[in-house]
Write a structure and sequence with these properties.
Length: 328
């Protein structure tokens, strides 16, 4: 991790951090319309962008920063997973080759097009609903978080009529290496945990990992489209990499310790969800569980309720399946 560098391009959408020579981490500014973190990597002869943020407006700034920092237009764009806050900005890189796993490529188009259609047709109602939910929240950190996310989606709604999803042109299964002359970027997918399919970018020489949303660093993790057991398995695989700097999908830059913290977080929430099932609570009731003291200062405070709800449904299904198995 390096100190803030005044010579780096500035943007209202993100803060840039230099991780190494020609390697930059763009950390999303909450509520600005960027939402997900991104990377700018100078591979030597080519420039690569890792994830493209939520809006075309934010992605345009990301592209401008990449052009200024590396002296050329990005040649490659990698999407870590299908979620819109990492992929909708693809539209700004229409002259680049976009790379993702095959399941991510398939999901990306469907999910983003559906989400953009929903925003075009019901954006105002969805915004009003979220603002009412924010006003009703008793926890001020939850309230601020819902407001910031509403601001992010409002920024996307403003461009929902002109933007569309842009699909990857190259897909891979588990590994793909890009040799850029100066350095090698390894794309790795161990399957899906946060979503059906998640990929990371690893720079073995520099020992830097861009993890996508497999790591929410000191932020509440979203698991609504994933599998917690697979996520834990994948974190075990990730922990075998030699990592000096970890650039997460959400939150600030970290070290290898972020992997153990993500594991502990998921295990703690799975434990809380199991307690809720054993106490006979519904998933909706479990969602009212207070945020544990250890995670009170985590970002995305409103995500805790959604995650505990999803994990309670997951633990209920596992408990039911075990009981069914015992009867057979
Ligand atoms: Zn995500």
């Amino acid at each position: 991790m390096t100190a803030p560098d005044a010579s780096l391009p500035t943007s209202r959408y993100f803060r840039l951090e230099q991780l190494g020579e020609g390697l930059f981490f763009a950390i999303a500014t909450p509520g600005s319309g960027s939402m997900g973190n991104a990377g700018i990597l100078d591979l030597g002869a080519e420039t690569l962008i890792f994830d493209t943020m939520l809006t075309a407006a934010a992605a345009r700034d990301l592209r401008a920063a990449a052009e200024r920092l590396t002296g050329r237009a990005p040649r490659y764009v990698v999407n870590s997973h299908f979620h819109g806050d990492h992929t909708i900005g693809n539209i700004v890189f229409d002259d680049a080759t976009i790379i993702a796993t095959a399941p991510t490529a398939a999901l990306l188009t469907n999910e983003n097009d559906q989400f953009l259609r929903e925003l075009r047709e019901h954006g105002a109602e969805l915004d009003a609903q979220a603002r009412a939910e924010a006003a009703a929240a008793s926890d001020p950190t939850v309230r601020r978080d819902i407001e910031e996310q509403s601001d992010d989606f409002a920024a996307l709604a403003r461009e929902a009529h002109t933007t569309r999803s842009r699909q990857p042109n190259i897909t891979f299964e588990s590994r793909l290496s890009i040799h850029g002359g100066r350095r090698e970027a390894q794309l790795i997918s161990w399957g899906g945990g946060h979503t059906t399919s998640d990929a990371v970018l690893y720079l073995p020489t520099e020992r830097i990992l861009f993890s996508g949303d497999l790591i929410f660093y000191r932020c509440h993790a979203s698991i609504t489209s994933g599998d917690p057991a697979e996520w834990l398995r994948i974190l075990g695989e990730m922990a075998r990499l030699d990592i000096a700097t970890l650039a997460p999908g959400h939150g600030a830059s970290a070290s290898q310790v972020a992997i153990a913290e993500q594991r502990a977080y998921l295990e703690a929430l799975l434990g809380l969800a199991l307690q809720a099932v054993e106490a006979g609570k519904t998933a909706e009731e479990a969602a009212k569980t207070p945020i544990p003291a250890a995670y009170r200062d985590y970002g995305f405070a409103s995500g805790f309720a959604q995650t505990i709800q999803a994990l309670t449904t997951y633990q209920r299904a596992r408990t039911d399946a075990a009981a069914e198995g015992a009867r057979l």
